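S.,

Sequence below, as promised.
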Amino acid sequence: MQSISFPALNLNLQINRVAFELFGIKIYWYAIFIVLAIVLAIFFFKKDDDKYGIKFENILEAAIFVIPIAIVCARIYYIVFNLNYYVQNPIKMFDLRNGGLAIYGGIIGGVITIYIYCKKKKIKFISFLDYIIPYLALGQAIGRWGNFVNVEAYGTQTTSFFRMGIFKEATYMEVHPTFLYESIIDFAIFIILYLFRNSKRLEGKITYIYLIIYCFFRFFIEQLRTDSLMLGNIRVSAIFSVILFIIGIIGLIFSEKNATRNL
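The prediction came back faster than expected:
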């Protein structure tokens, strides 16, 4: 049981990372949030059947490969940038109960898997991404609450209105709830993309807008976090945010130019 508070709201919570036990097996909230994100995404995929020429059956088939590969890659990414710890504690590599999934690792693994799947099925890769990207943002918004329950992915100490009170090694501190910042931003991105997808569409535009908005805000949120994956003195996720932000800008510019050329 962990104590979490939001002093400005006079809110005090006692949270257990374990949601319940089933046949003696502990079911963690972190896993429940991940499953919830997947189930909601499947619901929306079914609702959007044949949008952009992508069939629901293609989504289900791709998901069989994409979901486990993305989770494995998210874990590998996290391990690689915490290598010293895992070299000394190798058995911990397989322990996901305390979190330890890096979203950029999952995105990289998922995108590569989708690319291979689309090549094999002769489906337009960028159309496939446009189809699923809004629900990736929704899944991220939900998944961040797993960080909340695990009391991780929080930021530096602050006196702001949004501050969150936690105990770290028996010491009370008030910190930025960066999980909450990102969850709100991710949900806003989902709403924007979900509404935008029905407007006049340029191929790839939804994907590029996601990269631009998400990476812009993720870069600044990363500066507040105390658990950033580091490469020397460099915040790895901040670097990836800059790279993907630039890719989004370039992609959007080219898609606009191609649309103008085809008028």
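The first helix runs from residue 29 to 47.

Coffee later?
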